[in-house]
Amino acid sequence: xxxxxxxxxxxxxxxxxxxxxxxxxxxxxxxxxxxxxxxxxxxxxxxxxxxxxxxxxxxxxxxxxxxxxxxxxxxxxxxxxxxxxxxxxxxxxxxxxxxxxxxxxxxxxxxxxxxxxxxxxxxxxxxxxxxxxxxxxxxxxxxxxxxxxxxxx
Length: 153
Fold this sequence. Notes:
Layout: H1 28-40, E1 43-48, E2 53-55, E3 71-75, E4 78-89, E5 95-107, E6 110-116, E7 129-134, E8 147-152
Antiparallel strand pairs: 1-2, 1-3, 4-5, 4-7, 5-6, 7-8
């Protein structure tokens, strides 16, 4: 039966610009999370009453018991550093003028990966408490960078 000869057997090529359109949506839970960052300057999580877990960022189902989660709660803007890394190079391999610290900040039973600032990289400790520093309301756009960084408490 093979080879099958058909005009579509060969790759087709296009010259010029190929129009590609898409629309990315945050989804139900992420939209609520990012809207709260933008409009209220708060971090939201969802609580599972069956497992007593607080998911940050909020989600619509518990990953343990698969219950639907509807109990949205504002989370304290203070979390703890679970792990971190110090970046000395940019993505293109060039050296940064100043090192950047990126950490996993534990909030509830989840957390966020974000920048640490206002601290020397040599002073960062696992378990240290850090607080979110938000952009002013007029500068927020509804994304994770509405939190400028986390700083030591």
